[in-house]
Amino acid sequence: MLPIFFLTFREGLEIALIIVLMITYLKRTDRTHYLKSIWGGVATASLLSILAGYYIFEFLGGYDPSIPSDKNALRTFEGVSCLIAALVLTWMIIWMSRNAHKLGSEIREAVDAASNDRKATWGLFSLAFLTVGREGFETIIILPGMAKGATSSELFLGVLAGLGCATLVGFSLARGSKLFNVKRLFQVSGVLLIFFAAGLVAYGIHELQDAGLFPIISKGIWNTNGILYEKEGLGLFLKTLFGYNGDPELIEALAYSSYLGISLYLFLGPKRQDKQEGKNKQVHG
Questions:
Q1: Strand runs (DSSP E) across the chain, as ranges?
Q2: Whole-angstrom Cα distance, residue 278 to residue 285?
Q3: Are 124 and 34 in contact (CB under 8 A)?
Q4: Spatial distance between the Cα atoms of 21 and 69, rounded to a whole number of angstroms
Q5: What is the DSSP string of 101-150?
Q6: Do residues 264 and 194 make contact, with C-beta atoms less than 8 angstroms apart?
Q7: What is the pLDDT of residues 184-211, one digit of tens each?
Q8: Tens digit of pLDDT for each residue in 37-64?
Q9: Are 18 and 131 a contacting pair, CB within 8 Å?
Q10: Cα 179 from chain centroid (whole Å)
Q11: How far apart are CA 9 and CA 2, in angstroms?
Q12: DSSP secondary-structure letter at 179?
Protein backbone atom coordinates (compact mmCIF):
# COMPACT_ATOMS: atom_id res chain seq x y z
CA MET A 1 0.00 0.00 0.00
CA LEU A 2 2.82 2.47 0.75
CA PRO A 3 4.00 3.09 -2.84
CA ILE A 4 0.36 3.53 -3.91
CA PHE A 5 -0.26 5.88 -0.99
CA PHE A 6 2.75 8.08 -1.70
CA LEU A 7 2.00 8.21 -5.43
CA THR A 8 -1.63 9.22 -5.02
CA PHE A 9 -0.77 11.59 -2.16
CA ARG A 10 1.81 13.35 -4.32
CA GLU A 11 -0.47 13.56 -7.36
CA GLY A 12 -3.43 14.58 -5.21
CA LEU A 13 -1.35 17.25 -3.49
CA GLU A 14 -0.42 18.80 -6.84
CA ILE A 15 -4.09 18.88 -7.85
CA ALA A 16 -5.11 20.32 -4.47
CA LEU A 17 -2.52 23.11 -4.65
CA ILE A 18 -3.51 24.16 -8.16
CA ILE A 19 -7.26 24.08 -7.41
CA VAL A 20 -6.69 26.02 -4.16
CA LEU A 21 -4.74 28.65 -6.11
CA MET A 22 -7.58 28.95 -8.64
CA ILE A 23 -10.31 29.23 -6.00
CA THR A 24 -8.35 31.68 -3.83
CA TYR A 25 -7.62 33.92 -6.80
CA LEU A 26 -11.26 33.93 -7.92
CA LYS A 27 -12.35 34.86 -4.40
CA ARG A 28 -9.81 37.69 -4.15
CA THR A 29 -10.95 39.11 -7.48
CA ASP A 30 -14.68 38.86 -6.64
CA ARG A 31 -15.43 36.17 -9.22
CA THR A 32 -16.89 33.55 -6.90
CA HIS A 33 -19.77 32.96 -9.33
CA TYR A 34 -17.28 30.95 -11.42
CA LEU A 35 -16.50 28.46 -8.62
CA LYS A 36 -19.18 26.05 -9.91
CA SER A 37 -17.27 25.83 -13.19
CA ILE A 38 -14.07 24.90 -11.33
CA TRP A 39 -15.79 22.20 -9.26
CA GLY A 40 -17.59 20.90 -12.34
CA GLY A 41 -14.28 20.43 -14.15
CA VAL A 42 -12.75 18.73 -11.11
CA ALA A 43 -15.68 16.32 -10.71
CA THR A 44 -15.83 15.40 -14.43
CA ALA A 45 -12.09 14.77 -14.75
CA SER A 46 -12.06 12.73 -11.52
CA LEU A 47 -14.90 10.53 -12.74
CA LEU A 48 -13.27 9.90 -16.12
CA SER A 49 -9.92 9.11 -14.43
CA ILE A 50 -11.60 6.56 -12.14
CA LEU A 51 -13.36 4.89 -15.10
CA ALA A 52 -10.13 4.77 -17.15
CA GLY A 53 -8.20 3.29 -14.23
CA TYR A 54 -10.92 0.69 -13.64
CA TYR A 55 -10.83 -0.51 -17.25
CA ILE A 56 -7.03 -0.70 -17.29
CA PHE A 57 -7.02 -2.94 -14.22
CA GLU A 58 -9.86 -5.00 -15.67
CA PHE A 59 -7.71 -5.49 -18.77
CA LEU A 60 -4.80 -6.69 -16.63
CA GLY A 61 -7.11 -9.09 -14.82
CA GLY A 62 -7.93 -10.78 -18.12
CA TYR A 63 -4.53 -12.49 -18.26
CA ASP A 64 -4.14 -16.01 -16.81
CA PRO A 65 -0.55 -16.50 -15.48
CA SER A 66 -0.97 -20.29 -15.64
CA ILE A 67 -1.03 -20.10 -19.46
CA PRO A 68 2.56 -19.68 -20.82
CA SER A 69 1.59 -17.23 -23.57
CA ASP A 70 -0.45 -15.13 -21.15
CA LYS A 71 2.33 -15.27 -18.59
CA ASN A 72 4.86 -13.89 -21.09
CA ALA A 73 2.38 -11.27 -22.29
CA LEU A 74 1.78 -10.19 -18.69
CA ARG A 75 5.53 -10.02 -18.03
CA THR A 76 6.00 -7.90 -21.14
CA PHE A 77 3.14 -5.60 -20.20
CA GLU A 78 4.40 -5.22 -16.63
CA GLY A 79 7.98 -4.65 -17.79
CA VAL A 80 7.05 -1.96 -20.30
CA SER A 81 4.51 -0.32 -17.97
CA CYS A 82 7.08 -0.19 -15.14
CA LEU A 83 9.67 1.50 -17.35
CA ILE A 84 7.12 4.01 -18.68
CA ALA A 85 5.82 4.62 -15.16
CA ALA A 86 9.34 5.30 -13.87
CA LEU A 87 10.04 7.80 -16.66
CA VAL A 88 6.72 9.64 -16.24
CA LEU A 89 7.00 9.66 -12.45
CA THR A 90 10.54 11.02 -12.46
CA TRP A 91 9.77 13.63 -15.12
CA MET A 92 6.75 14.77 -13.10
CA ILE A 93 8.77 15.11 -9.88
CA ILE A 94 11.70 16.95 -11.45
CA TRP A 95 9.48 19.25 -13.54
CA MET A 96 7.48 20.23 -10.47
CA SER A 97 10.62 20.94 -8.42
CA ARG A 98 12.02 23.21 -11.14
CA ASN A 99 8.80 25.05 -11.93
CA ALA A 100 7.08 25.35 -8.54
CA HIS A 101 8.41 28.90 -8.01
CA LYS A 102 6.40 30.25 -10.96
CA LEU A 103 3.32 28.03 -10.60
CA GLY A 104 1.24 30.67 -8.79
CA SER A 105 1.71 33.36 -11.44
CA GLU A 106 1.02 30.90 -14.26
CA ILE A 107 -2.23 29.75 -12.62
CA ARG A 108 -3.38 33.34 -12.10
CA GLU A 109 -2.63 34.16 -15.74
CA ALA A 110 -4.51 31.05 -16.88
CA VAL A 111 -7.53 31.94 -14.71
CA ASP A 112 -7.54 35.51 -16.08
CA ALA A 113 -7.32 34.27 -19.66
CA ALA A 114 -10.15 31.77 -19.13
CA SER A 115 -12.48 34.13 -17.23
CA ASN A 116 -11.95 37.08 -19.59
CA ASP A 117 -13.21 35.03 -22.49
CA ARG A 118 -16.85 35.41 -23.57
CA LYS A 119 -17.39 31.80 -22.62
CA ALA A 120 -15.75 32.16 -19.21
CA THR A 121 -17.77 29.36 -17.60
CA TRP A 122 -16.60 26.86 -20.19
CA GLY A 123 -13.04 28.22 -20.08
CA LEU A 124 -12.68 27.76 -16.32
CA PHE A 125 -14.38 24.36 -16.48
CA SER A 126 -11.84 23.30 -19.13
CA LEU A 127 -8.91 24.68 -17.09
CA ALA A 128 -9.92 22.68 -14.01
CA PHE A 129 -10.77 19.62 -16.12
CA LEU A 130 -7.39 19.61 -17.87
CA THR A 131 -5.51 20.19 -14.61
CA VAL A 132 -7.13 17.25 -12.84
CA GLY A 133 -7.26 15.14 -16.00
CA ARG A 134 -3.53 15.52 -16.63
CA GLU A 135 -2.63 14.43 -13.11
CA GLY A 136 -5.19 11.62 -13.31
CA PHE A 137 -3.72 10.39 -16.59
CA GLU A 138 -0.21 10.43 -15.10
CA THR A 139 -1.46 8.42 -12.13
CA ILE A 140 -3.15 5.86 -14.39
CA ILE A 141 0.10 5.37 -16.32
CA ILE A 142 2.19 4.97 -13.18
CA LEU A 143 -0.21 3.02 -10.95
CA PRO A 144 -0.03 -0.44 -12.63
CA GLY A 145 3.72 -0.49 -12.02
CA MET A 146 3.36 0.71 -8.43
CA ALA A 147 0.51 -1.73 -7.73
CA LYS A 148 2.32 -4.91 -8.76
CA GLY A 149 1.44 -7.67 -6.32
CA ALA A 150 -1.16 -5.57 -4.50
CA THR A 151 -4.63 -6.94 -3.86
CA SER A 152 -7.73 -5.01 -4.92
CA SER A 153 -8.39 -3.96 -1.32
CA GLU A 154 -4.79 -2.77 -0.84
CA LEU A 155 -5.00 -0.80 -4.07
CA PHE A 156 -8.30 0.78 -3.05
CA LEU A 157 -7.12 1.63 0.48
CA GLY A 158 -3.81 3.03 -0.76
CA VAL A 159 -5.53 5.29 -3.30
CA LEU A 160 -8.20 6.35 -0.80
CA ALA A 161 -5.64 7.15 1.92
CA GLY A 162 -3.35 9.06 -0.47
CA LEU A 163 -6.09 11.19 -2.01
CA GLY A 164 -7.74 11.66 1.38
CA CYS A 165 -4.55 13.04 2.95
CA ALA A 166 -3.92 15.27 -0.07
CA THR A 167 -7.49 16.63 0.21
CA LEU A 168 -6.97 17.29 3.91
CA VAL A 169 -3.77 19.25 3.23
CA GLY A 170 -5.45 21.19 0.39
CA PHE A 171 -8.46 22.03 2.56
CA SER A 172 -6.19 23.20 5.39
CA LEU A 173 -4.21 25.42 3.02
CA ALA A 174 -7.44 26.88 1.63
CA ARG A 175 -8.45 27.77 5.20
CA GLY A 176 -5.16 29.60 5.66
CA SER A 177 -3.46 26.96 7.83
CA LYS A 178 0.33 27.08 8.13
CA LEU A 179 0.50 23.67 9.76
CA PHE A 180 1.89 22.02 6.62
CA ASN A 181 5.24 22.90 5.06
CA VAL A 182 4.31 22.24 1.43
CA LYS A 183 7.86 22.62 0.14
CA ARG A 184 9.09 20.02 2.64
CA LEU A 185 6.21 17.67 1.79
CA PHE A 186 7.09 17.82 -1.89
CA GLN A 187 10.78 17.31 -1.21
CA VAL A 188 10.37 14.28 1.07
CA SER A 189 7.70 12.64 -1.10
CA GLY A 190 9.79 13.39 -4.20
CA VAL A 191 12.86 11.58 -2.81
CA LEU A 192 10.75 8.56 -1.79
CA LEU A 193 9.09 8.40 -5.20
CA ILE A 194 12.46 8.57 -6.97
CA PHE A 195 13.53 5.49 -4.98
CA PHE A 196 10.24 3.84 -5.98
CA ALA A 197 10.90 4.79 -9.62
CA ALA A 198 14.40 3.27 -9.53
CA GLY A 199 12.83 0.07 -8.20
CA LEU A 200 10.34 0.15 -11.08
CA VAL A 201 13.21 0.42 -13.58
CA ALA A 202 14.96 -2.62 -12.09
CA TYR A 203 11.72 -4.60 -11.88
CA GLY A 204 10.76 -3.65 -15.45
CA ILE A 205 14.09 -4.86 -16.82
CA HIS A 206 13.81 -8.06 -14.76
CA GLU A 207 10.34 -8.81 -16.19
CA LEU A 208 11.49 -8.15 -19.77
CA GLN A 209 14.45 -10.48 -19.20
CA ASP A 210 12.09 -13.20 -17.95
CA ALA A 211 9.94 -12.64 -21.05
CA GLY A 212 13.03 -13.13 -23.23
CA LEU A 213 12.96 -9.57 -24.60
CA PHE A 214 16.03 -8.28 -22.78
CA PRO A 215 19.50 -9.88 -22.58
CA ILE A 216 20.95 -11.42 -19.43
CA ILE A 217 24.68 -10.71 -19.15
CA SER A 218 25.66 -11.82 -15.66
CA LYS A 219 23.14 -13.23 -13.20
CA GLY A 220 23.65 -12.89 -9.46
CA ILE A 221 26.60 -10.46 -9.41
CA TRP A 222 26.24 -10.56 -5.61
CA ASN A 223 24.02 -12.42 -3.16
CA THR A 224 22.82 -10.86 0.09
CA ASN A 225 19.83 -13.15 0.54
CA GLY A 226 21.66 -14.97 3.34
CA ILE A 227 21.67 -11.70 5.29
CA LEU A 228 18.48 -10.05 4.05
CA TYR A 229 16.17 -12.44 2.19
CA GLU A 230 14.18 -10.63 -0.48
CA LYS A 231 11.05 -12.79 -0.13
CA GLU A 232 10.26 -12.34 3.54
CA GLY A 233 10.35 -9.83 6.37
CA LEU A 234 12.36 -6.65 5.94
CA GLY A 235 13.80 -7.85 2.63
CA LEU A 236 10.33 -8.27 1.15
CA PHE A 237 9.33 -4.85 2.50
CA LEU A 238 12.37 -3.20 0.85
CA LYS A 239 11.76 -5.15 -2.37
CA THR A 240 8.15 -3.95 -2.52
CA LEU A 241 9.02 -0.33 -1.78
CA PHE A 242 12.42 0.27 -3.33
CA GLY A 243 13.10 -2.69 -5.64
CA TYR A 244 15.63 -4.46 -3.39
CA ASN A 245 17.05 -7.59 -5.03
CA GLY A 246 19.27 -9.98 -3.09
CA ASP A 247 20.92 -11.43 -6.23
CA PRO A 248 20.47 -8.95 -9.11
CA GLU A 249 21.56 -9.32 -12.72
CA LEU A 250 24.28 -6.94 -13.96
CA ILE A 251 22.10 -4.78 -16.26
CA GLU A 252 19.40 -4.61 -13.61
CA ALA A 253 21.86 -3.38 -10.95
CA LEU A 254 23.49 -0.86 -13.29
CA ALA A 255 20.12 0.50 -14.41
CA TYR A 256 18.94 0.86 -10.80
CA SER A 257 22.04 2.67 -9.54
CA SER A 258 22.39 4.91 -12.63
CA TYR A 259 18.74 5.89 -12.66
CA LEU A 260 18.72 6.57 -8.93
CA GLY A 261 21.91 8.66 -9.00
CA ILE A 262 20.92 10.79 -12.01
CA SER A 263 17.35 11.36 -10.80
CA LEU A 264 18.39 12.37 -7.28
CA TYR A 265 20.93 14.81 -8.68
CA LEU A 266 18.37 16.39 -11.01
CA PHE A 267 15.85 16.63 -8.17
CA LEU A 268 18.11 17.74 -5.30
CA GLY A 269 20.81 19.51 -7.31
CA PRO A 270 20.97 23.29 -7.79
CA LYS A 271 17.98 24.69 -9.69
CA ARG A 272 18.13 27.37 -12.36
CA GLN A 273 16.47 29.93 -10.09
CA ASP A 274 18.94 29.12 -7.29
CA LYS A 275 21.85 29.76 -9.64
CA GLN A 276 20.28 33.03 -10.79
CA GLU A 277 19.74 34.17 -7.20
CA GLY A 278 23.38 33.34 -6.46
CA LYS A 279 24.56 35.44 -9.41
CA ASN A 280 22.34 38.33 -8.33
CA LYS A 281 23.81 38.25 -4.82
CA GLN A 282 27.32 38.32 -6.25
CA VAL A 283 26.48 41.30 -8.47
CA HIS A 284 24.80 43.28 -5.68
CA GLY A 285 27.42 42.21 -3.17
A1: none
A2: 10
A3: yes
A4: 50
A5: GGHHHHHHHHHHHHHSSTTHHHHHHHHHHHHHHHHHHHHHHHHHHHTTT-
A6: yes
A7: 888 888 888 899 889 889 888 988 988 8
A8: 999 999 999 999 888 888 877 776 555 5
A9: yes
A10: 24
A11: 10
A12: S
- Could you give the CA distance from residue 35 to residue 27 in angstroms, rounded to a whole number? 9
- Pick from 49, 51, 30: which is nearest to 41 by CA? 49
Separation between Cα atoms, residue 98 and residue 266, nearest integer Å: 9
Phi/psi for 183 (5° steps) reads -60, -45
**DSSP code of 222?**
-
In terms of C-beta density within 10 A (0-12 exposed, 13-18 middle, 19 or more buried), how is residue 265 classed? exposed
Alpha-carbon span 149 to 65, nearest angstrom: 13
- Interior CA angle at 46 toward 42 and 48, to 5°? 125
